[in-house]
Amino acid sequence: MSLFKAHYNLEKKSIWLVIGIIAAASVGGLVEIAPLFTIDQTVETTPDMRVYTPLELAGRNIYIREGCYACHSQMIRTLRDEVERYGPYSLAAESQYDHPMLWGSKRTGPDIARLGGKYSDEWHAAHLNNPRDVVPSSIMPAYSWLAETGLDVSDLGAHLAALRALGVPYTDAMIENASTDALAQATPDSDAASGVAERYGETTNMRRFSSRKTVTELDALISYLQILGQMTQTAYTAEPKEVE
Amino acid sequence: MSKIERDPVTGYTTTGHDWNGIKELNSPIPRAVIIFIIVTHLAALIGWILLPTWPLGRTFTKGVLEVDQKTDLAADIAAANTARADWMARMATLDFDAIRADPDLMARALETAAPLFGQNCEPCHGKNGIGGPGFPQLSDNAWIWGGTSEDISKTITVGINSAHPDSRFAQMPAFGRDEMLDRTQIGMMTSYVQSLSNGFIANDPSEAATLFQDNCAACHGEDARGVEGTGALNLTDAAWIYGGDAASIWQTLMNGREGHMPTWQSRLSTADIRMLALYVEAMPGKLQ
């Protein structure tokens, strides 16, 4: 048992005790930091990865503001039941532009990592207005004010700039036109709409996301929900892992 | 001053400190704690050997077991697919008639389709396909794109007004908003459409009937019974998507409708879609 008496020496020499504490505590840090050195090997490459448009980003901010993440995860795990229910498991690269990430840790409602395109905009509008109109047994809260609240686009440029500082490849033109682009994406017949397609690609969802005449928070949130899992096609096209 | 003494009651030594006569026993660490520390350290050591653990520059130790969640998952899915490969293959390739004629296979199809329906279709079409405002009922016999398994599986595959290149396409024009009819005419047509539920009158000389023939018959048919494949539904029956009350019909005529059903081709397998088609086709019977 003399090994267990060794700490007497440490306890009597405080400088060694401090060094010992630092050594023990840094294990926690190492465990979190060391894997970052192998990130090239563990995170997939996604050449087709796109960025959030300003409207989708506004929707994402509303998703955070309303606390949707408290009930919905965006993280499909590598388990058969999850993959069969929701679709391909989530890849690290899919949330590379997510600051902060919204993986969540609790599922009161279903995972929505692959929600984009699963339902129509009309369904989302009806569901967010009052979930029980479409899913009678739902316990999700109603978010009826979203359709009544005009979307504030004034600070979207600053949001894009902040994300660029964190490594999201927004261009100067994207930052400059963020407010106009946000409104134009939901008003496809406006003059500014061509700019959105030019900056964010022809495949951007350009349409009215709800039946309101002006662009509301509901439009922004639906535009975000409709691209979940669609930021890159890597997860869908990746070769299934070899089975030995 | 520190003076180590032996405590006469417990037999342990003291730490030697003395705080105004209060002394501290230096009792040993309980055996259970020591055993616990040894066991957890051994477990960690075994873990290092068996599982992926240590980063080594650009790679990491893979562990003797070479476990990998992604490979495990692929094996899991492959095993599950092998177990049902036989009947899933028949589901995907056999004629619908042949599936219906095989009671075992048909029972499998209905059983497998039920949770698929709940997960994917029920949010819009409702429990047992009862439908809701804007989302057609499936448990009736009123079909817009055909109610056979073949038609239904096509609809599920390509969707309606969806992003699929072969999507079914349908649009009810906004007669009011786009000024094809004025408000009085819209009001008149609303009553006319409602009256159709009591039966279509051929050669009706009224103004509404004439307007119907001029504006609506091209899609809804000269007898208002709908034309399958155009998305224009039968107006003479009791089935409505957006409601048969005057206010809903007025809205439909005024602002048009363009419903949207997603394509399921990339979400569901061919076998899944065909089982769902059989399930939906069998729905009206089940509700009786």
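qc> Chain B has a mean pLDDT of 90.
qc> done
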